[in-house]
Design brief:
With about 230 residues, the protein is of the alpha/beta class. The chain has helices at about 10-25, 35-45, 60-70, 85-95, 105-120, 155-165, 175-180, 190-205, and strands at about 5-10, 30, 50-55, 75-80, 100, 130, 135, 140-145, 150, 170, 210-215, 220.
């Protein structure tokens, strides 16, 4: 199952940048732009990570963080803010943040901090996805089969990583498209099909078929199900 991340951020440009990037990395991401709504989402959802802005309308990030920790919830929280004074960092950490990231930030640093916080909370968490002889290294964005590199493009890599996160599940075209391309599937574009063909070709150059097409339903990665097309 994908790691579930809640973003509470009122600046659309920053939020969209994070949502798109994290979805491409294979995370399941939700975003709210209001502090009070974010607090309700925290209470109603089972999140693996929270990216929390300090300054928010209706309820600021520190107030959210304080209440969250007073309820003894241990979900990792990465505090996002333009305030970079040492006293502000200390305050955020003392309120219960697991880490602190100053704006503006590079997406690579955001990913690294998410990985670091996750490892501290659960040292067994791996950034490598494996199915049979297929391996994807999310940290270094490398992929291989039977020990041989697959030489995937960026989108092909994200597509394969998403499938590896959901082995032997029926993945509809809409679901794949929304997670990998971060936009609704219109049913007309053949972009997804073209990428599936390329990933399938590269995988099959090194072993048997793993991506199977279910007519009018989508795809399955892994064991061949019944009633599939080629």
């Amino acid at each position: 199952m994908s790691m579930r991340i809640l973003i509470i951020e009122d600046e659309d440009e920053i939020a969209n940048f994070m949502v798109q990037g994290l979805r491409e990395e294979g995370f399941a991401v939700s975003r709210v732009a209001d502090g009070l709504e974010g607090w309700h989402q925290l209470q109603s959802g089972n999140w693996d990570m929270v990216l929390l802005d300090w300054w928010l309308p209706t309820m600021d990030g520190l107030a959210i963080l304080k209440q969250f920790r007073e309820e003894n919830v241990s979900t990792p929280v990465l505090l996002l803010t333009a305030r970079d004074a040492v006293s502000d960092r200390i305050k955020g950490l003392d309120y219960g943040a697991d880490d602190y990231l100053c704006k503006p930030f590079a997406f690579g640093e955001l990913l690294a901090r998410i990985r670091a916080v996750t490892r501290r909370k659960d040292p067994t968490v791996s950034t490598t996805l494996v199915y049979q002889d297929v391996r994807v290294d999310l940290t270094n964005q490398r992929s291989e089969r039977a020990g041989q590199p697959l030489n995937l493009t960026a989108k092909e890599f994200f597509l394969l990583a998403f499938m590896l996160r959901h082995p032997e599940e029926i993945l509809t075209r809409a679901r794949i498209y929304e997670h990998v391309w971060d936009e609704p599937y219109d049913g007309l574009s053949n972009t997804l099909e073209v990428h599936v063909v390329e990933v399938r070709r590269k995988l099959e150059a090194l072993g048997p078929r793993l991506i199977h097409t279910l007519r009018n339903r989508g795809y399955v990665f892994g064991k061949k199900p019944g009633n599939v097309t080629t």
